[in-house]
Amino acid sequence: MALTACGTRGGDSGGSSDGAGSGDKVVKIGVISPLSGDLSALGLGIQHSVELAAKQANDSGDLGDWKIEVVPEDDEGKPEVGKNAASKLASDKDVIGVVGTLNSSVAGPVQPILDKAKITMVSPANTNPTLTRGAKPADAPERVYDSYFRTCTTDAIQGPFAARYLYEKAGIKELATVHDKKTYGQGLVDAFSAEYKKLGGKIVAAETINPDEDKFSAVVSSLKAKKPKAVYYGGEYPQAAPLSQQMKAGGLDVPLMGGDGIFSPEFIKLAGKDAAGDLATSVGAPTASLDAGKKFLDDYEAAGYSDPAEAYGAYSYDAATAIIEAMKVSLKDAETVEDARQGTIDAMKDVSFDGVTGKVAFDEYGDTTTRILTVYEVKGGAWKDVNTEEFK
């Protein structure tokens, strides 16, 4: 989870290779995430967490004479760039799995490319339900790609979880929604709104913004006129932070709440003092509250990465570990990585271990079986957990 102390600002260790010896056989795990641009803080945390998992697996010798190399590819948070990254990795005969993507909108074009190459894909961050359960995830779920899995819960859980918190625990009966028109943001708001209205809540305004803008005066004026008691936002921190700041400056002094896309120290840095009281949900229990999570954070800091693990570090570490666990089965008698690709996909269905985020296992659709989430609030210039529970 996002903790400002979970990585040092020193030199990187790990990089794209974990040092296979001359007698070792190389197997590669790719990473597709935004390594540049507005979302790079999240993407670099994903990359380094995978590198940590690979390094520890190599040090353990559990894969025999196979050594893992990590191959990071920058998708810039853009679907077309992500598609090109997937094609590059798919053409590498030594790639057996990929951790990524961050954005659900990028996952869409990436999935079929990796699936065709029989490369296992495990996302630590995609939350749109259609990626695993098809066009009608609630009414007629149907698995889309057997090669796709995720360690995070979906918007079908995260949105309603937030709605219940605001309505039942915070006592907010009227609010407004805003989303950025992207797959993740719109899906999150849709899931939130359905549950909030079912509980009896009233949505007094439903606005959208453009994801490439940071001036929201017209939206703020429209929201202020409707006098909501809170604003629920679907999107990521580069837009959520200025929206929160401009809401308060414009006289709409109410909490902004979002999903895991805003749960980053970067949100607080960008929003400044106006972030106080804002809320976010994120998947799982706080990493530092679990013994395995504490060890992960300590190991990450000791590795000296120049970027913090951020919101998805622990889930990326578990995603990489899940692929490695499957590789222990698929590589056992394989001569080449390509020989083991389908076997890795097949072995994923039986993967089950105690990860740094809790129990890691997948259901028949490739979704995580864990349904624990946490609400965080900005207090004293940092995210503080205020409510953790299993969604039922």
From TrEMBL:
| Keywords assigned by UniProt, alphabetized | Signal
Which InterPro entries does the record associate with it? Leu-bd (IPR028081), Peripla_BP_I (IPR028082)
Spans annotated as Disordered: 1-23
Gene3D superfamilies associated with the record: 3.40.50.2300
Q: Does the keyword Signal apply?
A: yes
Keyword Signal assigned to the entry: answer is yes
> Record's Pfam families?
Peripla_BP_6 (PF13458)
The name under which this protein is listed is Branched-chain amino acid ABC transporter substrate-binding protein
Lineage of the species this protein comes from? Bacteria, Bacillati, Actinomycetota, Actinomycetes, Micrococcales
